[in-house]
Amino acid sequence: MMKLVRIICTALLLASCQSTQPVNENTVLPVATANIPSPVDEKVFALTDSGIDLLSRSDVNRFIDNEVKHEHYSRIELENFFRQVRYRPSIIRGMDKQGTSLPWYTFVQNNANNIRISSGNVFWQNNAEVIQAVSKHYGVAPQLLVAIVGIETNYGATMGTYRIADALTTLGYHYPRRAEYFQRELAEFLQLVYEEKQDPFNFKGSYAGAMGMPQFMPSSFRQYAVDWDGDGHRDIWRNTGDALASVANYMKQHGWQSDAPIAVPVAMQITPQLQQIIDEPTALKYTAGQLRQLGVIIPAQIGNQEKGILYRLEKSSGKYDYWFGLNNFYTIWQYNHSRHYVAAVRQIANGLSYSNTKL
């Protein structure tokens, strides 16, 4: 523990002496996070310098008390950590802008366009060996792995430049609506730092605290991130093997079925009952047989007992295509709770030149 004390204390001292480097962050993100001010667009200041004394807050001290019980950090280390974090106003603005729902025809152009797919072909060509090895090991389609890191961070090009410590602290103690969640993620982050034995202020990511090529939150990192090459670190930022294996591990743990489709197109005349089913929360609730009895025409290769999700995509204003999402649709949906997201991942995966099968 004394060694770690020296690591953290040295990191905190160095952090207080370093200036912020300007970074250009031209990000096209899968969930409504475009047009969020980048870290260089705002004044950055220490919470203590701005008159915000976190250590005077009872909730911060309760957090410190709980973390000290884990015996990974001393109270002094944690107090130093909270003195060095920075308040980022653009993070709060970014969270407040969330919730704008784009129609499918706009969402797909932003996130699964030809440029995204062609960039995926280049990424696959440059990393073919590790992509195939990870896919074979986990039984997860290679095109899915490429599509996930493509839609999340444009194949690692736009992973975010916010310090994770700043993001999680800003949201944990200055965003009441989701404070409890982000305080939990801050605790997970500190455990992650302890496990990885790294400087807590070197971890960079999105304004919401998501990290690396696959944009894992700290809790997901700790549970699913993989050290693919065995070098002692789960480096989902710079190590393509670690990043892809982490995505594959997540998908496998959430029920990915090899050689099975994500979704199939269906034909139907919309009725109030079918519209109600479409509007229900996403879950594997209805079987293909049940929907066929309601008039939904589902491809014959889908057995009557197979459960799925009936959904629609707005291809142009007021005009829809209808789909039956299967088990693998739900697996991806657990990664990001958006039907549009899953559909865009599928579109990227199926558009890649190296894909042998359609998902």
TrEMBL record:
- The reply to whether Signal figures as a keyword in the UniProt entry is yes
Q: Tell me the Gene Ontology biological-process terms attached to this UniProt entry.
A: peptidoglycan catabolic process
Q: Which UniProt keywords apply?
A: Signal
Which residues are in the Transglycosylase SLT domain?
Answer: 58-349
Residues forming the catalytic site: E152
- The region annotated as signal peptide is 1-21
Q: Which CDD domains match?
A: Slt35-like
Q: Which residues cross the membrane?
A: none
Q: Which InterPro entries match?
A: Lysozyme-like_dom_sf, Lytic_transglycosylase_MltB, MltB-like, SLT_2
Among the GO molecular function terms of this UniProt record, one is: peptidoglycan lytic transglycosylase activity
Record-linked SUPFAM superfamilies: Lysozyme-like
Which Pfam families does the UniProt entry name for this protein? SLT_2
**Key word Signal present:** yes
Q: NCBIfam families, alphabetically?
A: MltB
Query: Can you say what this protein is called?
Result: Lytic murein transglycosylase B
Q: What is the organism field in this record?
A: Snodgrassella alvi
Taxonomic lineage from the root: Bacteria, Pseudomonadati, Pseudomonadota, Betaproteobacteria, Neisseriales
